[in-house]
Amino acid sequence: MFVQETKSKIGEVTAIVAVCAAALAAVANLVAAIIVARAFRRDSALLDDSLTLFVTLGALVSAFALGYGAVLLARRDETGRWVLIVTAAAQLGLGVLGLLATLVNYDSGYGIHWFADGSVTRSILLGFGGVPGAVTAIVNHSWVAALSATALGALVLLPAALPWTAAHTLARPESPVGPNV
């Protein structure tokens, strides 16, 4: 009896942590998309057109997926946990690609300038923006942005993928009203 109660409490805590981390990552992606769009609107010569479109749409899709997954997980829906796992794994993958691009000193050869004159603090903030942070790391060879983008994905992926979170969502009580239609 005590073991079962402890497992349910741990599952509840990990689910709450996953929901909070996903909400934070969703807001971070949204803020980073706004930063990129404002910088492009202010001076479109500073940023590449297609890269700006890709990054802004990617950040918005990621923000929506993380927010939707967080809401579903808060409702103890297993689908929300999987949405968070897939989205966070994609963000983690982008961060790792940023780290690899920095490691091998990747240069696309297109002469893309992307927040090149930014400070380390700005790189950290953009890195925590998910998709924009990973692109900043790839284009500018910024270790700080790459590590930040990787940390953001891991921050969401870890609690969502834990077995206690899965047990918490699978132990969802039946609705007293009836089946969901």
TrEMBL record:
- Top-rank taxon: Bacteria
Q: Which UniProt keywords are listed? A: Membrane, Transmembrane, Transmembrane helix
Annotated transmembrane regions = 12-39, 51-73, 82-104, 143-162
For the keyword Membrane, the answer is yes
Q: What is this protein called?
A: Uncharacterized protein
Which species does the entry assign this protein to?
Nocardia halotolerans
| The organism's taxonomic lineage, starting at the top | Bacteria, Bacillati, Actinomycetota, Actinomycetes, Mycobacteriales
